[in-house]
Amino acid sequence: MPRSFVRHALFGTFLVSTTALASGVMTKTAWAQAQVAFNIPAQPLTSALTAFAQQAGLRLAYPASLASGKSVPALQGSMAPNAALGRLLAGTGLTYSISGSTVTIADPAAAGISGAADGDAVQLETIDVSGGGVDGRPADLPYQLPNSTTYISGEQIERFPPTSPSDIFRGAPGVLSGEGRNGNSVDVNIRGMQGMGRVPVTVDGAMNANTVYQGYQGIGNRSYIDVDFISGVTIEKGPSTAPGGGIGGSVRMSTITADDILKRDEKFGVRLKAGLGTNTSKVPEYSTKGGFNFPRGNRAPGVDGEPEGMDRPGLFEPTNGNGSITMAARNDNAEFVAAYARRKRGNYHAGKHGPLPGTSGNVGPHTECIAFGAFCTTYPQWYVNTGLSPYRGGEEVLNTSADTESVLLKGKAEFGDGQSLQLGFTNFSSEHGEIRAMDMATPEQRPTQRWLSEADVKSVTARYRWNPTDNDLIDLKWNAWSSWQEIKQPTTAGSYYTDQLGLPRPTTARILVGIDSRMMGTDISNTSRFDTVFGALQFDYGASYLHEDTKPADYVSRFLQRASNRVARDGTREEINLFTKASWVPMDWLKLDAGVRYYNFKSTDRLGDEDSLIGPYIPGQPKEYDGDGAAPSASITVSPFEGIQAYASYAGGLRLPSLMETSNAYNMYISPNLRPERARNVELGINVMEDSAFRDDDALRMKFSYFNNTIDDYLSRTLDLSLPALVIYNIDKAHFSGLEFSGRYETGGFSLDLAATYYLDVEFCRTSSTCINSSLATDYATNHIPPEYSLSLGVNQKLFDEKLTLSGRITHMGPRSADFEIPPSGAAELISAIRWKPYTLVDVAASYEIAEDVTLDLSIENLTDRYYVDPLGLVTVPAPGRTIRAGFTATF
What we know:
The protein has about 900 residues and is mainly beta. It has 9 helices and 51 strands. A hairpin with a 5-residue loop joins strand 14 and strand 15. The chain starts with a helix and ends with a strand.
């Protein structure tokens, strides 16, 4: 079937169905008469109002203090929104009033005491809760949903400012970021699933993912973000029927809005933020060496010449900084945000306490092979590093600097009848250090300062919503976006090739080569709600489209990447999804969900075309791949008691081969019979939301889940000596199972957060009868194996009328949850498993409001100055040692 016909039919069908709904399938009634299916467990009033707004599709506004300390019983069943809100507020002494599409909650008694006349406003800090948004008490969201969801607030990110963007995921159960110290980006791993689009990351709905080739050592699936602009992160684990969901999960980031800057009734405001940090040094000259030298041959390891890189700045000496300015404006129907941020730091220094480098003594003779079991050399003496990295304690870690600039422009307009349109633009530019992974894959390889890399990422977004209050059949969302990425790295080509192009030699000047990528997509979805004699029904359905185009940046890039065996992919890929989901609440304590998602894709490889300048390496390699498939999902949720929710779910998902896996490159062969990965995920869980659990003013939240995830036809990479080539192909399956726990306890100004993950089983199966508790040799997943267990404990205490907040966090990482396979005798270890040892980190922070809207912040990362290596990296570099940061935020 022609591709264009499928696309036009898809969107035509959806447009017709949406138009039919809008034209009056249901007789319009006032919002007070429309029937909505509510399922709100017993909980604090604040979080109950959040759930009400989401389910009713309404906007609430109220002073935050009104709901403090109040709890409400469960509310379930179909009823008019005004009846539901009346039941939630019964016994609280609060009332509500309606103005347009906004429902305002007030306390008549408080208004009478203050002497406010009718129509006068009491000026208090407010919380706006918009249907479909994550506002109010987003920390409660994971404990309200019958699936594994984690939410990271902007407040959490600011409390412990990250050295690298990946640090924002610290403490999220089942979630890590690979390559956290290399490339100034994030590469999210959810329950062992990582890379190749398995976990899409979006910012305001837009993706900017790039697969960066790291030599034989592997790939990085990089997404670029600016933490200064992130207001919240929602992480969904496992396949989803919603748009943009990956087979392993999804990460949806939202940027700041006017509500993050302005108080209620304010029309204009400016926020200034600035900070200073320690523990970094200026980037040294190109080719500067660091660490211990483990030479091949007859010499013992040691440090050559003077001990450069050991001049760590003083504990309180500021060596890096950041600043941002954000302007926000709004009126009754529109808002606008403009922001600029700049961050600059040099190379950071490692900690001093831990598994430092050392020599095993001579363990030779030793035979080392370069590739494919060929080019082998036997050395009479061989020395192994007994530490995790060649860097010494407190030493400057080369190629870890970052200098970034970001711009955010964002506007939103609200129209009548529940309509809104949001437009956005972001530009992220980074000049940063980066190590080519195969050059630092083992602790014996000596680090060298390279030329800096560059990344420039732009995106535009448009998000439309139509949610009329008098029509339960329409809750329409439409998103469209496009992103452009220019990723450039220093060439590894020799001077022989640069001389031919009249370019300087790579050892004397920075010559960058890279890729140009374009991604664009759109998705549209609708929710229809019905009240029947058999219970409340809800249908969610929609479609999405994704287009990718990646190619070497220019003639020089193409030539030099070929010369240096680092050919970027050159191809296009399209993917279409259709999805639908039905929810049924036959009884107040029971909810049933079922859905299905259809996938269709096509990938075209331009390698070998006349304009690509690169010929095919493997004769007969397919130029096009396509395929389709469908995956079902189902769940059951029961609420046997107030505050207790149990669920069981099955989630199926497909991951169609990525552009990286269907387009050729140096010495890579793509199997002609690639099949999509098929996930079969089973999860059992319990949510607990108890108020007055131990005291009258406390709140207890807990979530415990068991997951058992099987990915059939898992896409892997192996070495085929008969070609010889590296081959992308399907193995029988991969399997991950484990336990997760997250909990929160609050009382007064004190809060305690706990998160833990434990893997019961991790295995890969080449065939159904050859399963091993190990990653496979030469496969990219070698360094996607998460720790067997991890634990995070956070404590916060507010003092002096909540002007002072003291915080602490302890994070512990265990060993690998699975071993790594040793290659057959005579074959080179093309992907080395990066070693880490279990470690414990301690972070502390304090925040003090010195005046209204002026706050001072202080944090200490890695308080004990621990020397450690992060999990999931591709390079053997230690993480930052003790780092102190101070900053201030002022809004006016």
